[in-house]
Amino acid sequence: MTGSEELRGVRVVTLLAWLMVPAGVLLVCAGVLDLSWWASADARRLTAVMAEIKQEYGVNWPALLRDGDAAVTLIVLGVAGMAYGLLAPMIRRGLRWARNWALGVGIAFFLVALMGIGADASQPSYLRDYYETLTWTTQTDRIAEVKAVLYPAWFQWFEDFAQGLGALAALAVVVGLIWATVAHPDHFVGRPRGKRARDGRQEDQWDAALARIRGSGGIDAVHDSRGGAGSSSARTPGRAGSPASGGAGAGGAEGSGPGSGSGAAAIDEDIHRLYRRPPKGDGTG
Question: How confident is the model at residue 32 (pLDDT cuts 50, 70, 90)?
Answer without folding.
Answer: very high
